[in-house]
Amino acid sequence: xxxxLIAAALAASSVAAAAQAVAVPVTxxxxxxxxxxxxxxxxxITFRLSNKGTVTHGFYVRGEGVEKGSRELPAGESxxxxxxxxxxxxxxxxxxxxxxxxxxxxxKKLVVTGAAAPAKKPS
Length: 123
Description:
This protein has about 120 residues and is an alpha+beta fold. The protein has one domain (about 20-115): Immunoglobulin-like, CATH 2.60.40. The chain contains 2 helices and 9 strands; from the N terminus they run H-E-E-E-E-E-E-E-E-H-E. The protein has a 5-stranded mixed β-sheet with strand order 3-9-8-5-6. A 4-stranded mixed β-sheet has the order 2-1-4-7, with helices on one face. The radius of gyration is 17 Å and the shape is globular. It starts with a helix and ends in a 10-residue tail after the last strand. Mean pLDDT is about 85; it is low at about 5-10 and about 10-20.
């Protein structure tokens, strides 16, 4: 019985964390990374990726101890992934072809600020 309660609590906390993630649309094309926002609050960020280019692209986040990337996205495909970011500066880029996509301009800086304040409850 205790194991079932622990499993239920873990599942609920995972759902709650995913629900609180900030969603950020990202469009990948030749040779650009377009991000809806370049400044984000600290915490879980879900990058919603869309490859609108004609070749396979990827998306990678590097900085402040984070090294995480998406799967390769063939032309026309979409995917998402969530990463927890703390305040600081990050580099986001396409890592394809030994970083030649990055060298061609598929790179951006992302600034993460302190976490957003929790919403106040009405008195």
